[in-house]
Design a protein that fits this description.
The structure holds 3 protein chains of 3 kinds. By secondary structure, chain A is α+β, with helices and mostly antiparallel strands. In chain A, a hairpin with a 2-residue loop joins strand 42 (794-799) and strand 43 (802-807). In chain A, helix 11 crosses helix 13 (563-574). The radius of gyration of chain A is 38 Å and the shape is elongated. The radius of gyration of chain C is 14 Å and the shape is globular. The chains are: A alpha+beta, B alpha+beta, C alpha+beta. The interface between A and B is large, with 53 and 51 residues.
Chain lengths: 997, 195, 103
């Protein structure tokens, strides 16, 4: 066993040895150790290099607020930087490395930055990257060149680029009472609420419940506090109305008592269990919350307060009592309050020599003098530490008499030899969650701390969180809070008894000892007391500005230990009391949160996707799939060696020559049912639907309320009160919401129901000169001849024993039919059609050929109905009924929407026989080097096998009038410039003779 | 009769999966009802529709939003004001309702192909479902028989509790495979069996 | 934020879609009053305080709800089905009067 490790006590299991590495060197620790406690036990004091100055840094704390000892943990190729060593539970095989050092932690080349301290002061980035305002380098790029090196030198760990294979999950939870923090207050609250029968959740960011009971050295109900905590936890573990969440940081408090928490499920294991996530993001909706989050101890601000070996007093107490580790052999203390005396006694008991207690206060209570005597420590009342000595580890410190009235050290300095200095600047309640929940914190002059605000949401505070720092108060408040949160009545049962070290909770109002040297306020961002004053001298008066200018409290620790000292120094500089300076509002997250946990199942294989009924057939038959929104659709069915263009040209050509079939199951389909369905459609569409006969379909256009085009599609009348509306694939959801809105909000009197039936039907569109013959060969129960099935007619029949509905309509411009069957029969019908088509040379075609044929026909899609175009722009004004009002009719004739120079739909033919590009602009002047004066842009383009040319659809200013003229396509990003002819958008078969047959 | 193809086929692997060495805590299956029908009443006609449901299925709907019940063969639950989902092992439910639900009462929409019914059962069913849906699955908040409409990202779901630790989830067919894969993935940590 | 749907109970805001200011009044469909149409399509109240809003429970029962919400505190004062609330409620008229500077 290491000489720093005590023989008994704490949460560690001395029998279990764990092997890990830090900066490549092998170490051992025990089960229950953190990386911090295990290394400390081996005498390691140097844990990292500081952000700007690369100063050597050691452990300041033992918990989540640690600003100095940040490490990178490596798991295979994945690296996670900036984790406090105090929060890493060691396990066999753990690999951790230190950060922000080169070439090594002990010999860091950038430590020279300390000498240039004046340059790297507050507002450094703002000043530096402006470049010099005068001198020989003014206006040169020299500073841009320097920036690269400066940024490299300053910083924390670096993120990895390997894909993170870990599993992250989200969990939704509901409870009556969420208790945050499991110290004596939290445990009492959880137990009291659970006893009332409430559904309780108890979360603590530490692996072991108990909070201060794990290290306080007090007794509760006659037992060591840690044992009492174990007993309560054991009672809670047996109940089914409480969920215990260790290793869980509640990091966000949102509206309506919705809280966010991160559970580190398997970080402490060598390997997660099968299917076990690394992190779990808990979204918790709690009826009420008990905040028992405790308090953070504050450092004192004095020169050299960042030297490795200088540590918060309670942190040393924790290391001794909870981990059985002595942070030093000769320990000195420096305090402005009574709580540090507890640490002195604890360390003495654990076997260290406590050589001195420097207390800022000139008068000390008899109880404190008694504790000092117990610790066998020499007391220096009215003294302050003014310097520390040593290199990468503390070797000694200097004391001077301290004048409380003017805050200055006086008299001769006195040296003390010590390898560890504990400091305590008082305590700040951990009010972060309460602050996030709303309302401003209130300054309490006696405690010299911000206390939680009055609740604006349903939470109740308990324990140190409220400024009640004694365990007895914590137990009482915890129980009362738990009862109240569960809606129970206080019962006159007796509270547990507590034997505690006495102490006054109020510190002396001293935060800084002003003496020569760098005194750190924010350890993680290297902000000194002088930086704060410099910001003040440069005119910053608001605390919010101070924070941003100096970056105080903006590091990953979010200023947990530095906020109040920083404010105090700012207030002093301003000559104002602290409450007038105010504090910044805390924002989520309380502690860093893994991005993976937030993304959880929303990426990779688990993101939702929509598949058509024939999906597997497409894959098995050579389709290259294309994602269209959430849908997957065949792009082409390429043959061996074919390019995409060769494939779609072949598919489109074959369709026009014989027949082609395409999966159209993704089209939005909405059942519109009810006695007022026809009247409703008359209001929704620009054209009439009440006149549509049963068994017929009609092409319809919808506008938005503002008069712009919204969506188009065919709607089929299946019965007097029964319509099947189809929408574009992309707009299916939007159209559904549009219809629901009007039925619910605008026309509640209409008796119409709308239901999404997109997934009920499989759709196959079969088109081409042979399409009717193919259908005739496989459809039974109905004829498909021109008389039975005219253009826009609908028949019902069967294909291969499956009922189908066939509508004769065309998107390709060919004689075409859409065959609908129940989705579960989709592949069956599809295969029957393919089989029937085989003798006729039927081909399957994908989106590319579909798009090609629609461009040849000049049909519009979402590329043209882009939210800016009107029906007139798209030459669909023939669909605007004058006999009735419809959605958008009142707004569509506004001045701007009927102006002559609007962009109108046209066709383009490339005159240089080269491909065109979507998004390319159309210009009039031949000025390739300086393209200007756009008159429009291309919306869709293809090589047209029917025309043998590269063609495009475009929206062009006053396009109709320009038909027959020439212009140029300009696409400088893709290096394309060339002449085009502007033509009608109906390139192919403009009179529709092919589809009408 | 031509058999209906399940959208889950290539991802439906019968057997035990995940961390099942310590026992299986989840059972997943597709219930494949012959009929799934959506019924919607006009305002004020809800009682007549409920009575029609009783006539056709023999199931007497309890009062209240989201109320429902199941007899193991037929199931019914409310999912929106005046709207109900009815499922039956047998086909032909839409035709049966067409005889009793007159146009004056409301509408019938056949969704037998359009929705896929996935059953999750076992002691960890609530735990696994809580990974997807932000609703309270505890028994007091979600009693046996009741139905809920909710969504996981873009996947709409109607969920009926058909047992103390059993839920039937109706999702759009096109999303079914994707949702099924996610459900299997989420069940791995507790061990699951596909039946 | 939670919205208590009258049918489904309290649900997370992610299940809902905001459908705009609930104070708008759609002119008679046949009306040619361009000012009224313009106001309906484009004018929105933006109060710092209680606001009458339309939300759809799109990830649930899909009903449209009239939600009175405080835009400063996110407090939700009332939620009701919008279908059938013909009078649009006292709150609406009060908010509109306030916006128009009338008492």
């Amino acid at each position: 066993m290491s000489p720093r490790r005590t023989d008994i006590g704490g949460r560690i299991d001395r029998v279990k040895t764990i092997r890990f590495t830090f900066d490549g060197a092998p170490y051992t620790g025990h089960a229950g150790d953190t990386l911090a406690s295990a290394l400390l036990a081996k005498g390691v004091t140097l844990f990292g290099r500081s952000f700007k100055y690369h100063r050597p840094r050691g452990l300041l704390t033992a918990g989540v607020e640690e600003p100095n000892a940040l490490v990178t943990v490596l798991k295979g190729e994945v690296r996670e930087p900036n984790i406090p060593a105090t929060m890493v539970e060691i396990h066999d095989g753990l690999v951790a490395i230190s950060q922000n050092r080169f070439p090594s932690l002990a010999w860091d080349i950038n430590a020279v930055n300390q000498l240039g301290g004046k340059i790297l002061s507050a507002g450094f980035y703002y000043k530096t990257f402006m470049g010099p305002a005068f001198g020989p380098l003014k206006g040169t790029r020299f500073w841009m060149f320097c920036e690269h090196f400066i940024r490299r030198a300053a910083g924390l760990g670096s993120a990895g680029s390997a894909k993170d294979p870990a599993r992250y999950e989200r969990m939704n939870a509901f409870c009556d009472v969420l208790v945050v923090g499991s110290g004596p207050a939290g445990l009492m609250a959880a137990k009291a609420a659970a006893d009332q029968g409430a559904r309780v959740m108890l979360a603590d960011l530490e692996p072991r419940f108990g909070g201060s009971a794990n290290w306080s050295d007090e007794t509760i109900d006659g037992a060591p506090a840690a044992d009492w905590a174990r007993r309560i936890v054991a009672q809670l573990e047996g109940r089914d109305n409480i969920r215990l969440l260790p290793r869980t940081t509640v990091w966000g408090y949102y509206d309506n008592n919705t809280l966010a928490a991160l559970e580190r499920v398997s970080d402490h294991k060598e390997q997660p269990g099968k299917g076990e996530p690394r992190h779990r993001y808990w979204a918790i909706r709690a009826k009420s919350v008990v905040l028992a989050t405790g308090a953070f101890e504050r450092p004192l601000v004095f020169p050299g307060n960042d030297r490795p070996g200088v540590m918060l007093a309670h942190a040393a107490e924790r290391y001794a009592n909870e981990f059985g580790v002595l942070p030093g052999e000769r320990i000195a203390l420096f305090t402005n309050n009574d709580s540090a005396y507890r640490a002195a006694v604890a360390l003495k008991k654990a076997g260290a020599a406590v050589v001195a207690i420097a207390d800022i206060r000139p008068e000390l209570s008899p109880e404190m003098r008694k504790l000092a005597a117990e610790a066998e420590a020499e007391i220096f009342a009215g003294h302050a530490v003014v310097a520390t000595e040593g290199g990468k580890a503390l070797s000694g410190l200097k004391l001077q008499r301290f004048d409380m009235t003017n805050g200055a050290p006086i008299g001769d300095a006195r040296s003390i030899h010590a390898d560890c200095l504990l400091m305590s600047g008082g305590w700040s309640p951990t009010i972060h969650l309460a602050s996030q929940a709303g309302a401003k914190a209130e300054w309490n002059a006696a405690r010299q701390a911000f206390l939680p605000p009055k609740p604006t949401q349903k939470w109740i505070g308990a324990g140190a969180f409220t400024g009640s720092f004694s365990t007895l108060e914590a137990l009482a408040e915890g129980r009362a809070a738990g009862l109240a949160a569960a809606g129970g009545q206080s019962t006159p049962s007796v509270l547990p008894t507590v034997e505690a070290v006495p102490g006054d909770p109020d510190p002396a109002p001293v935060f800084e000892i002003r003496a020569k040297g760098k005194s750190f306020v924010d350890f993680q961002h290297d902000v000194t007391a002088e930086d704060v004053r410099l910001a003040h001298r440069e005119g910053f008066v608001s605390v919010e500005h101070l924070k941003r200018y100096t970056t105080l409290g903006m590091a990953t620790d979010q200023g947990k230990s530095s906020n109040v000292p920083g404010l105090a120094i700012m207030a002093e500089a301003l000559g104002k009391p602290i409450p007038e300076v105010g504090t910044t509002r805390f924002r989520p997250p309380f502690a860093p949160v893994s991005i993976g946990s937030l993304a959880a199942e929303r990426f990779g294989d688990l993101k939702p996707e929509r598949l058509t009924p024939m999906h597997d057939w497409h894959l098995a038959n050579g389709a290259t799939m294309y994602s269209a929104g959430l849908w997957y659709r065949p792009m082409i069915y390429g043959l061996a060696g074919e390019t995409i263009e060769q494939a779609y040209v072949r598919e489109a050509k074959a369709t026009r020559e014989t027949a082609g079939i395409v999966d159209v199951s993704t089209l939005g389909k909405i059942a519109v049912q009810g006695p007022d369905a026809a009247a409703f459609l008359d209001r929704v569409y620009t054209n009439m639907f009440s006149t549509l006969a049963v068994g017929k379909a009609r092409y319809g256009l919808m506008l938005r309320e503002d008069g712009l085009a919204f969506d188009d599609g065919t709607t089929w009348r299946l019965g007097e009160q029964d319509f099947l509306m189809t929408t574009t694939t992309a707009n299916a959801g939007k159209v559904m919401q549009h219809l629901e809105y009007f039925l619910d909000v605008i026309w509640p009197d209409l008796k119409v129901h709308v239901t999404s039936v997109t997934d009920e039907w499989a759709g196959a569109a079969i088109g081409g000169p042979k399409a009717r013959e193919i259908l005739a060969a496989c459809v039974t129960g109905t004829s498909v001849d021109n008389a039975t099935l005219p253009f826009m007619g609908i028949v019902r029949g069967e294909i291969s024993d499956v009922p189908v509905m066939i509508c004769r309509l065309s998107f390709s411009g060919e004689m075409a039919f859409e065959v609908y069957s129940g989705a579960g029969h989709g592949t069956h019908v599809w295969e029957a059609l393919i089989e029937a088509g085989r003798p006729f040379g039927l081909v399957t075609y994908g989106l590319e050929a579909l798009g090609t044929m629609r461009i040849e026909k000049g049909h519009v899609t979402g590329a043209e109905i882009d939210g800016r175009t009107t029906a007139r722009d798209l030459h669909l004004d023939w669909m605007l009924s004058k006999k009735k009002p419809f959605i958008g009719s009142a707004m569509m004739d506004r001045e701007g929407l009927i102006a002559a120079d609007r962009l109108e739909l046209v066709g383009l033919v490339a005159l240089d026989n080269r491909p065109l590009n979507g998004g390319a602009h159309i210009v009039e002047e031949v000025d390739e080097a300086n393209p200007h004066g756009s008159i429009g842009h291309i919306t869709a383009c293809c090589y047209s096998p029917a025309l043998g040319k590269h063609i495009a659809l475009a929206l062009v200013k006053d396009g109709k009038a320009r038909q027959g003229t020439r212009a140029n396509v300009s696409d400088p990003l893709r290096n394309r410039f060339g002449p085009v002819e502007i033509v009608s958008n109906h390139f192919f078969d403009p009179d529709g003779s092919r589809m009408h047959g | 009769m031509v058999e209906r193809q399940s959208p889950l086929d290539p991802e439906f692997h019968v057997g035990s999966h995940g961390n099942f060495e310590h026992g299986v805590e989840i059972i997943l299956t597709e219930t494949q009802p012959g009929s799934i029908v959506q019924l919607a009443a006009w305002p004020g006609e809800e009682k007549k529709l409920i009575s029609a449901i009783r006539t056709v299925t023999g199931l007497a709907l309890p009062d209240g939003a989201g109320g429902g019940l199941s007899d193991g063969v037929k199931s019914v639950f409310g999912f929106a004001p005046g709207k109900f989902t009815v499922a039956d092992e047998a086909e032909g439910l839409a035709a049966a309702f067409a005889k009793v639900v007159t146009p004056a009462i409301g509408t019938i929409t056949d969704l037998s192909h359009g929705r896929t019914a996935i059953r999750i059962a076992g002691p960890k069913a609530e735990w696994v479902l809580a990974k997807f849906f932000a609703i309270d699955f505890s028994l007091p908040a979600f009693p046996v028989g009741a139905g809920r409409s909710t969504a996981h990202h873009d996947v709409f779901a109607q969920i009926q509790r058909t047992g103390a630790d059993q839920f039937d989830i109706y999702v759009f067919r096109s999303f079914a495979r994707s949702f099924w894969k996610a459900l299997c993935h989420a069940s791995e940590e507790v061990g699951y069996e596909v039946q | 934020m939670l919205i208590t749907c009258p049918y489904c109970g309290p649900r997370d805001v992610i299940e809902f879609t905001y459908q705009g200011d609930g104070n708008r009044e759609r002119p008679d469909p046949a009306s040619q009053n361009f000012e009224a149409w313009n106001a309906y399509v484009y004018d929105r109240l933006n109060p710092a305080g209680d606001h009458n809003e339309i939300w759809q429970h799109s990830g649930g029962c899909r009903a449209h709800l009239r939600v009175v919400r405080n835009t400063l505190t996110h407090e939700i004062l009332s939620v009701a089905f919008i279908r059938g609330d013909h009078g649009r409620g006292d709150h609406t008229s009060a908010a509109r009067r306030k916006a128009e500077g009338k008492s």
